[in-house]
């Protein structure tokens, strides 16, 4: 299984989550989500999905193969660098 960590659960995160759902037959699954707005993270989380308060928490602690950054553009660099280092 390819385990995805989705950072940012707003409009773009929701769109990406729908794409991963469409890839379920290829054994792709969102296993962790993060958003500073807990209600947004909860909305995208399936049963068993880990929920993190911040993207940096997800990067540091989630067992994922892929990090999908769906944050405002100005926040991408810090999260991308942290994900690559992890």
Protein model, in words:
Helices cover 42% and strands 23% of the residues. With 86 residues, the chain is of the alpha/beta class. Strands 3-2-1-4 form a four-stranded parallel beta sheet. α2 (38-44) links the parallel β2 (28-34) and β3. The longest helix is centred in the first third of the chain and has 12 residues, at 11-22.
Structural class: alpha/beta
Shape: globular
Which residues form runs of ≥5 with pLDDT under 50? none
Biggest β-sheet: strands ordered side by side in the sheet? 3-2-1-4
What is the CA-atom radius of gyration, in angstroms?
Answer: 12 Å
H/E series, N to C?
Answer: EHEHEHEH
| Major β-sheet profile | 4 strands, parallel
How far the N terminus sits from the C terminus, by CA atoms, comes to: 19 Å
Strand fraction equals: 15-25%
Helix percentage: 40-55%
Total helices: the number is 4
Brief digest:
This protein is α/β, with parallel strands linked by helices and 86 residues long.
Question: Which helices and strands occur, and which strands form pairs?
Answer:
Blueprint: E1 2-7, H1 11-22, E2 28-34, H2 38-44, E3 50-52, H3 55-61, E4 66-69, H4 76-85
Parallel strand pairs: 1-2, 1-4, 2-3
Overview features:
86 residues, alpha/beta, 4-stranded parallel beta sheet, 4 strands, 23% strand, globular
